[in-house]
Design goal:
Helix content of chain B: under 10%
Number of helices of chain B: 0
Oligomer: heterodimer
Radius of gyration of chain A: 13 Å
Strand content of chain B: over 45%
Structural class of chain A: mainly beta
Structural class of chain B: mainly beta
Largest interface: A-B, 26 and 23 residues
Radius of gyration of chain B: 13 Å
Number of strands of chain A: 11
Shape of chain A: globular
Distance between the termini of chain B: 37 Å
Largest sheet of chain A: 7 strands, mixed
Shape of chain B: globular
Number of strands of chain B: 11
Helix content of chain A: under 10%
Order of helices and strands of chain B: EEEEEEEEEEE
Strand content of chain A: over 45%
Number of helices of chain A: 0
Chain lengths: ~110, ~110
């Protein structure tokens, strides 16, 4: 089945230790998103890629970086995680088809910072 | 620019109806609705466009009031499987830029 896969599902890192989260998709969608979702809050968009074009949200901290080496894969790098970065990180994809686009979400990576 | 959802939470008995609202202070281009069950990823429900077009699941209905910049999601004859947090995501402006701003969510609990 076509899907959005995130690895790992759970990640524990130490304060200040760099961490990379990965997302892959078999949907061949050209748009990919990274969201941060804290407990009982809405998903907050960090970045999105439209094909290779990278779009950073104005309030995304510099500590967060992203890479999309090809259509299928996207990575979220947190250079120096702080306690406030503990959250669920959701990857999503969509296909640009004019006005209709639904986002397909992966299961998320729950990040714990100790 | 975050849309405002109401109510924050609602508890129903199976078979009852509910309405969830999403409003914006900015002119909207589209409204998207997603449902997220605890510990799971959000799942797409509906898209409503300025102008009246919509696309989504057969068993869920929604409306988009352009004058009020408000959308409502109608859940009728609720089932236990409807439980979860409902998020609206909005696009403002004159066209799609393929990114959404989500509201804080409405927690729906359906009891037997």
């Amino acid at each position: 089945d076509a899907m959005v896969i995130q690895n790992p599902r759970y990640q524990v890192t130490q304060f200040g230790k760099p961490v990379t989260l990965s997302c892959s998709q078999t949907l061949n969608h050209n748009v990919m998103y990274w969201y941060q979702q804290k407990s009982s809050q809405a998903p907050k968009l960090l970045f999105h890629y439209y094909d290779k074009d990278f779009n950073n949200e104005a309030d995304t901290p510099d500590n967060f970086q992203s890479r999309r080496p090809n259509t299928s894969f996207c990575f979220l790098d947190i250079r120096s995680p702080g306690l406030g970065d503990a959250a669920m990180y959701l990857c999503a994809t969509s296909r640009e088809t004019g006005v209709w686009y639904e986002q397909y979400f992966g299961p998320g990576t729950r990040l714990t910072v100790t | 620019q975050q849309p405002v959802q109401s109510p924050q939470a609602v508890i129903l008995r199976e078979g009852e109806d509910a309405v969830i609202n999403c409003s914006s202070s900015k002119a909207l281009y589209s409204v998207h609705w997603y449902r997220q069950k605890h510990g799971e990823a959000p799942v797409f429900l509906m898209i409503l466009l300025k102008g009246g077009e919509q696309k989504g699941h057969d068993k869920i209905s929604a409306s988009f009031n352009e004058k009020k910049q408000q959308s409502s999601l109608y859940l009728t004859a609720s089932q236990l499987s409807y439980s979860g947090t409902y998020f609206c995501g909005t696009e403002i402006g004159g066209g799609s830029n393929y990114k959404l701003t989500f509201g804080k969510g409405t927690l729906l609990t359906v009891n037997p």
